[in-house]
Amino acid sequence: MAIALWKLAMPDSYRSVRNQFGVGKSNVGAAVLQVANTVIDQLLSRVLTLGNVQTIVDGFNALGFPNCGGAIDGTHIPILALAHQGGQYVNRKGYFSMVLQALVGHKRCFTDISLGWPEKVHDARIFRDSGLFEQLQEGIYFPDQKITVRDVETPVVILGDPAYPSVP
To answer: Where are the domains of the chain?
Structure first.
């Protein structure tokens, strides 16, 4: 655990961490991977949860957005250069990053994320290739709840900038 936390917290190389703890370089990688997988298995579902959809819809309604189930956008997460694919991860501002797509509820809590895309991938593609899109298409992410706005039945919607397509 200490090896993984040290590596994740410090910008040290695997060689430097190996020397710090007196273990093999492959042991450092294995420790980081094991801790990361444990965090995903044990904690991710507690941090990223849709929760009560009606509470989210009601919260957005109070903010002036009727029948809204979330707001979505992407952001750049700075990363260290990837030797074999570095050019793909250089963003328009000149530093290495990957794209994080996030869906948040009315209290700005994450309800879904997709991470790892190179900077050059468009938001619409990230969305269409995400698990969120698949769940929305299958009708399992939001309930079949519609409201009538000016004689038009409207399902639960997600707010996003023009990069995100309107999908049924």
So the answer is: 2-47, 53-159
Q: Are 159 and 69 in contact (CB under 8 A)?
A: no
Q: Which tokens belong to 27?
A: 């042991």
The residue written with tokens 């809590």 in the block is: 109
Instruction: Name the pTM for this structure.
Output: 0.68
CB 85 within 8 A of CB 72: no
Place of tokens 């444990």: 38
Structure tokens that stand for 168 in this block: 């049924």
pLDDT for 84 equals 63
What residue ranges in the chain does DSSP mark as E strands? 68-78, 97-104, 110-118, 146-149, 152-155, 157-159
Specify the pLDDT at position 72.
95
Low-confidence stretches of the chain (pLDDT beneath 70): 43-50, 81-86, 168
Indicate the burial class of 53 (C-beta count within 10 angstroms; 0-12, 13-18, 19 or more).
Answer: middle
**Which residue, among 49, 73, 38, 57, has the nearest Cα to 147 in the 3D structure?**
57
